[in-house]
Amino acid sequence: MFTNFFTLLRANGLNVSLGEWMSLQNALDKGMGCSGLSEFYFLCRTVLIKSEADYYAYHRVFLEFFEEVIEQSENPIPAELLDWLNHPASTPGTFDPDKARENMRLELDEIRKMFAERIKEQHEEHNGGSYWVGTGGMSTFGNAGNSPTGMRVGGESKFRRAFEVVGEREFDDFRQDTVITPRQLQLAFKKLRQFSNLDDAPKDELDLDATIQSTCDNAGNLKIEYRRPRKNSVRLLLLMDSGGSMDVHRKLCAELFSAVHQSNHFKDLRIYYFHNCIGKYLYTGPELRYGDRIETEKVLAELNSKYKTIIFGDAEMSPYELTDDYYSRSGMEWLKMIKAKFPHNVWITPDEMRYRPGSWYRASYDMIAQEFDMYVMTISQLEAAFSKLMVNR
Amino acid sequence: MAENIKEKFRESGGYVASQQLLNAVNVAMLLQKPLLIKGEPGTGKTMLAQAAASALNRKLIIWNIKSTTKAQDGLYVYDVVQRLYDSQFGGKDVANIEQYIKLGKLGEAFSSDEDIILLIDEIDKADIEFPNDLLWELDRMEFNIPETGKTITAKKRPVVIITSNAEKELPDAFLRRCVFHYIEFPSKELMEEIVRVHFPDLEQNVLDASLEAFYRLRALSGIQKKPATSELVDWIRALTLSGIPVEKITFDLPFAGVLLKKNEDLDTLERSRRSGFRR
């Protein structure tokens, strides 16, 4: 029944398996979901969809497939559903490739001119659409829109496609293939393990071989021996860039942070924050508050050099932050101190370098890349970075 | 049938569930698959199992998952050290291994003669491989104890409810075996019903004002930890106890610290209040 619905769901990227589909048939056989369209709708969703993130996509496919049924049905779509359709909370489906291509060709000056004209004409609020200043939609102005180029007016960067936000920056297309799921991230962190039982954990695991040996030595009188469980001996130091150009990566930072935190297998875990480049102070919170600061030298003195060190930042800053005595020593000197103290180190950037070689924005990145091994936060590169951290020196 | 459960739910100590959630419980029971419940913290995921147990008149067994929990802990533990000691000092018949096998929560649910609801609470707290280790046991409702050579099979298939706070992503193979429901944040109408259960005598204008303030607060952009049902209930309790005049509730938001638990969020609220509480 409805096999086309199954194929349509899969064609729309909803990864429904045959097993789940058979479960649905089973439920229908048992008489569930037969009393109305909305019950059927929720039954399919419960059985087939396994993430709230897919609810919207499912909703669209359902409406598309059962459009005719919905129109012909005497008791059509329940009011609740219809309401949702008419007032979607967001409008992710409004991407229009033709309009996108058209907008791509526009120069910044043209967009500015159009914006000035439009401001004169417009007198009300707009959401979606491709002409007016508003939220969502394909217009080149406003916020949270889908146009590949344009001007952001208020709000926060959502798709990072505005090229007139802070000065003149060129953004390439936001790369989808670099997206990494939290689970993959957590699994990657599992690589950072080195088992050893030379640990200060309590001895609470029965050591069978030793028990047999000492019982024999004890002339057959039972003598139980315990040993320490084998535990991960990796200590991790994570230094994270926070604020400024890192704001667009806030979600990624949060995911990285929680992945590290949930990987509760580390012997010790230290996380500190800095802004742009490491200086005289590190901070214990991402807000970089004055009260949270701690001297970098103190951190260096406190930790031994066994700590595996991950620096997470986009390495984008003004080159003078690295070369001038901006933080009582130059930024580069601080970085070299870190590198010298912690021989197991990698630098991970949230994104591929966007700027062409030789551009001014890239200068700081190139300088840092001479000192640190740089990795981009993709599955394969993360694994390579972690393998590098685990190499004995 | 669903209507029936809803009625029983209400009798059973004030759990207000949406129709969709009740349907999901029904589907899970009918298809004999575990029901995976996700949702914002404070939307009553754990309470659902308790309410379902008393509504369906089943015994509830709760397996609380912690970061150190292993799948084996839920099945059984073999106390080998006790057996060794007994063999030395006598007293018990050590040939009878069975007395050294202690069943875990899952084992308990399987071997029970009663109808059981098994709640596996906060499955995402455990190690990332944990759900995969339970696939077979939850699918076939049986497991083997190699020490005694016995197989524990569920006498009566328990209804399994699993909750997750989405702290960790769950593996695909596990998800495919579950029926899934995401508890959406309650709409204003449903929330009114929920608050009514807790405060039957609350005046309507206080309820309206606090709900309005609450939903406006949730809609405020930049709030990191949005207040949920349990915070709202605490807040209304604070409001009623202090006797603050109704007209102050909406804009002054007294006791905002009950609703917002993070300093940053209180700062955000302060900023938006200065600009007239607009989004």
Tell me the layout of helices and strands.
The complex is a heterodimer of chains A (393) and B (279).
Chain A: H1 3-11, H2 18-29, H3 37-48, H4 55-65, H5 67-72, H6 79-86, H7 97-104, H8 108-121, E1 134-135, E2 141-143, E3 151-152, E4 164-165, E5 167-168, H9 182-189, E6 195-196, E7 205-206, H10 208-217, E8 226-227, E9 231-232, E10 235-241, H11 250-262, E11 268-274, E12 281-283, E13 293-295, H12 296-302, E14 308-312, H13 320-323, H14 331-341, E15 345-349, H15 363-371, E16 374-376, H16 379-390
Parallel strand pairs in A: 1-2, 2-3, 10-11, 10-14, 14-15, 15-16
Antiparallel strand pairs in A: 4-5, 6-9, 7-8, 12-13
Helix pairs in contact in A: 1-4, 2-3, 9-11, 9-16
Chain B: H1 2-11, H2 19-31, E1 35-39, H3 45-56, E2 59-64, H4 71-75, E3 76-78, H5 80-89, E4 101-103, H6 105-111, E5 116-121, H7 130-133, H8 135-140, E6 142-145, E7 150-153, E8 159-164, H9 172-176, E9 179-183, H10 188-198, H11 204-219, H12 229-242, H13 246-252, H14 256-259, H15 263-274
Parallel strand pairs in B: 1-8, 1-9, 2-5, 5-8
Antiparallel strand pairs in B: 3-4, 6-7
Question: What is this entry, summarized?
Answer:
Chain A is of the alpha/beta class and 393 residues long.
Descriptive key words:
heterodimer; A: 393 residues; alpha/beta; Rossmann fold; 4 domains; three-stranded parallel sheet; 16 helices; 39% helix; B: 279 residues; 15 helices; 49% helix
